[in-house]
Structure formats: structure tokens, C-alpha cells
Design a protein that fits this description.
The protein has 427 residues and is α/β, with parallel strands linked by helices. Strands 1-7-6-5-4-2-3 form a seven-stranded mixed sheet, sandwiched between helices. A five-stranded antiparallel sheet has the order 8-9-12-11-10, covered by helices on one side. It has helices at 9-21, 23-46, 65-77, 92-103, 119-125, 154-160, 184-197, 249-259, 276-305, 330-342, 399-415; strands at 82-86, 109-112, 140-143, 165-171, 202-206, 225-229, 243-247, 309-311, 323-326, 364-368, 380-384, 390-394. Helix 2 runs antiparallel to helix 9 (276-305) and helix 9 (276-305) runs parallel beside helix 11. The structure holds pyridoxal-5'-phosphate. Pyridoxal-5'-phosphate (PLP) binds next to helix 4. Pyridoxal-5'-phosphate (PLP) binds at residues 91-93, 118, 120, 171, 173, 175, 206, 208-209, 229.
């Protein structure tokens, strides 16, 4: 079958050799998936998910048993008091904006203690001046950078907290930075540090790309709120849109009255055609996340053997599903993205090209052939066309499809003369 996709014998056997060496790694990923699968199923059973929960509502969406049960399932699985899980949350950035603006008041101070936030949050907070930002509403901001080695600066955090500090925020995933992703254990230590200064400070964790990678979530180690996107890990590839906020009753209620209105809160919000893909996606999410993780480890293994720098490295512990590969040339980046696109179930016949994307200071190339537009739990890759010419790739709903994608990138590199034949010799 690989031959039918135009993948040469030497590329297939190179991949097979790497795969054999990853057996223990894959077993570890499968054990985490098994644990998380049981965690999700237990939550579904405890919350008595029924067939009636699978359909949706229209209009105001009062008494939407599907919506209410889904939120109870998220809360139970993440060991939180409550959750807000809605198709009306447009994306991860929106979920984070709702969590922030719902819980902060004029005069409050927000401190990011994991360094600067994800790009899109800069305008939400007002780090880059923007219409409607938290800054316009009188919320002040500062940040404590991670230390050189990527760990929390506990002393800096303690010093930064003032009587005005209402919330400390942590971004679990590196996103598109080069720092390491934070583990749940490390996040727990940071929560303890913040709470030791003042126990009423809210700790919010941007949990994007981290869900189900470990057997615990930040809510298990004291975070007041975790926030994420449903077109990443927890949607399992089936949720067609949406975001979630899970945490204390107080934090979730504050977010709910911001998402809808004061007084209405969680009581309204029609789920339209169906709740089923949200339930089913959450059910599949632990195994889908495992497939994406296997793809990431496989890619690191192949590309490290080909002599490229991979972040994280093939043997490093993983706390999110993102894999960066530094290819060193624009040609390498384009070949890689072409390979990912050619392995997609949708739009496999188109060729990704660099373009001037709004908000970026260099051209960006993106490869994705997804069932859900923009979904990054599905196999996808993107890269800014600038040194060091690193490509960021993530996702893969099934392990064989992720594997195909990565083999295809190697084939494209080979076709373009970017690899030497001896590179593909199995060492
Ligand atoms: C993806 C992501 C976001 C924002 O999500 P969108 O759905 O793209 O708005 C925020 N933080 C991190 C770490 C992310 O990876």
C-alpha cells in the first residue's frame, strides 16, 4: 500500500526500523490512553449519559439535558466542580478570553507566570493594544518569565504578587515557542507557590494541546480553572467547534455570565442539531491523543536520525502533542508540508504554499486536510518561512494515518534531493 502512495522501499524500511525501536515508548502511551479512557467512561456512567442526551435543543436552549450532562461529564473527568462546554465558544482563544474577563474586574491584576502568552492572547489582554482588551477595562497585566532552563521562577512569582493580584495564569503547552512544555507535576508546584502567598488568587491554566497526554490534569494539582479548545485534544476529532472551561463552581459561573449574560449564565445556549459528536469525541479523545503522540514521537525519531534537531527530542518526556522539527531551509519546510498534505483524507490533491498571513511578520505555510476546518488534532503542520526554518506539526486521528503523513514528508524530502540516499540507511 505504501508503494501505491509513491513511498519508496527504503523510506518504508527506514520507518519500520524506527518503529521497532519505539515499541516501549508506544506501550507507555497506550497505558496512559487506557487509564484516561477508563476515566472518561467512568465519568460518563456516573453522570448517567443517556440516549436523550445525544440530541440538541433550539431557541433559548432551556433544560438542555445533553448540554448539562456533557458539562457534568467534563467536570467529573477533570475532577472539577463544574464546567462550561459550549459550541458558542468559538475557539480556544475565546474560551480563554471568557475565563479571563469573567473572573477579572477593573483594578485587578493578572500575572502570566509561564512567560508571555500564546500570540492571540496578547490582544485579549492588551499587551498589544486592541479594541475591547482587558486593559481597556482597567485590568493590569504583568508576566514572570520562566527561567533559562524552562522551569518556573518561584522567587520571581512570589515577588511579583501584589495585593491587586487576582489571577495567575499558566500556559501548559509551549505553543509555538521554543521553551519546553510544562508537566502537570511542575504546574502543581507553581500552584502551591502562588497559593502559599495568598490562597484566594485564582490559578488558570491554558490547557490547549495538553489534555489526556498525562494521566492527570492541572485540576488534579490545585488549578482553579483549566481552559481549552474542542478542535484540539478533548474534541477527539468529532466535535465540530467549541471550547471548554472546567474548574471551581465560582470560576465557571463567573465565566458563564460573561459568555451569555448576567442572570442567564449557564441556563441558556441551544446546542442545535446535536450533542452526540461532543460526547463521542470526548469518549474517543484519550485514544486519539495517543495516536497523535505516537506520530509526534515517530517523527522525532525519524528526523533525529536524519540529522535534524527535534523539539522535544525523541527520548524526551512529552506533555503535549506538538512536535517541532528544524529543517534549516525553506525548501525543507515546503517539502515537509507537502508530505503532510498529500497524506490527508481531505484535500490531498492541493499543494500548500507560503502566504502573507495577517498578524505574522513573515510568510507562513500551512498543511491540513481536515474534516473539521482548522482542526489541529487532525494531522497538520505549519511553519513561518524564516530562520531557523522549523516546522511545527501535530495531530493524527489514527496512528496509521499519522505514520503515513510522516513517511510522506520523508519521501517528499527525498524527491527534492534534500536527503542523501545514505541518510535512509538503517543504522
Ligand atoms: C491553540 C492554542 C490557543 C488558542 O486556540 P485557538 O483555538 O486557535 O483560538 C491558546 N493557547 C495555546 C497554548 C494553544 O495551543
Amino acid at each position: 500500500m505504501y508503494k501505491a502512495f509513491g513511498i519508496d522501499e527504503d523510506v518504508v524500511s527506514f520507518g519500520a526500523a524506527q518503529e521497532r525501536m519505539l515499541r516501549e515508548r508506544f506501550e507507555e502511551i497506550d497505558r496512559t490512553a487506557e487509564y484516561n479512557q477508563l476515566k472518561v467512561m467512568r465519568a460518563m456512567q456516573q453522570c448517567r449519559v443517556s440516549e436523550a442526551c445525544l440530541s440538541g435543543t433550539t431557541g433559548y436552549g432551556y433544560n438542555d439535558i445533553g448540554r448539562e450532562t456533557l458539562e457534568a461529564v467534563y467536570a467529573a473527568a477533570f475532577h472539577a466542580e463544574d464546567a462550561l462546554v459550549r459550541p458558542q465558544i468559538a475557539c480556544g482563544t475565546h474560551a480563554l478570553a471568557v475565563a479571563l474577563s469573567g473572573n477579572l474586574r477593573p483594578g485587578d491584576e493578572l500575572i502570566y507566570i509561564s512567560g508571555g502568552p500564546y500570540d492571540t492572547l496578547e490582544e485579549v489582554i492588551g499587551i498589544r493594544p486592541s479594541r475591547g482588551s482587558l486593559a481597556e477595562y482597567g485590568v493590569t497585566y504583568k508576566q514572570v518569565d520562566l527561567k533559562e532552563d524552562g522551569t518556573f521562577d518561584f522567587e520571581g512569582i512570589r515577588k511579583a504578587i501584589t495585593p491587586k493580584t487576582k489571577m495567575c495564569a499558566i500556559q501548559r503547552s509551549k505553543g509555538y515557542q521554543t521553551r519546553p512544555t510544562l508537566s502537570v507535576r511542575e504546574i502543581g508546584e507553581a500552584v502551591k507557590c502562588v497559593k502559599s502567598v495568598r490562597s484566594d488568587i485564582i490559578v488558570m491554566v491554558d490547557n490547549c494541546y495538553g489534555e489526556f497526554v498525562e494521566t492527570t490534569e492541572p485540576t488534579d494539582v490545585g488549578a482553579d480553572m483549566i481552559v481549552g479548545s474542542l478542535i484540539k485534544n478533548p474534541g477527539g476529532g468529532l466535535a465540530p467547534t467549541g471550547g471548554y472551561i472546567a474548574g471551581t463552581k465560582e470560576c465557571v459561573e463567573n465565566a458563564a455570565v460573561r459568555l451569555t449574560t448576567p442572570g442567564l449564565g449557564k441556563e441558556v445556549g441551544a446546542t442545535l442539531s446535536a450533542n452526540a459528536p461532543f460526547f463521542q469525541g470526548f469518549f474517543l479523545a484519550p485514544c486519539v491523543t495517543a495516536s497523535a503522540l505516537k506520530g509526534a514521537v515517530f517523527a522525532a525519531s525519524l528526523y533525529e536520525n536524519l540529522g535534524f534537531v527535534c523539539t522535544p527530542g525523541k527520548d524526551a518526556a512529552r506533555y503535549d502533542i506538538i512536535q517541532a522539527v528544524t529543517l534549516g531551509t525553506p525548501e525543507g519546510v515546503e517539502a515537509f508540508c507537502r508530505g503532510i498534505q498529500k497524506a490527508a483524507p481531505v484535500d490531498s490533491f492541493v499543494t500548500p504554499e507560503p502566504w502573507d498571513m495577517p498578524g505574522y511578520d513573515s510568510q507562513v505555510i500551512m498543511a491540513a486536510g481536515a474534516f473539521v476546518s482548522g482542526s489541529s488534532i487532525e494531522l497538520s503542520a505549519d511553519a513561518p518561512i524564516r530562520p531557523p526554518y522549523a516546522v511545527y506539526f501535530q495531530g493524527g486521528l489514527t496512528w496509521p494515518s499519522a505514520k503515513l503523513g510522516i513517511l510522506m514528508t520523508v519521501q517528499e524530502m527525498k524527491n527534492d534531493g534534500l536527503l542523501r540516499p545514505e541518510d535512509l540507511c538503517v543504522k
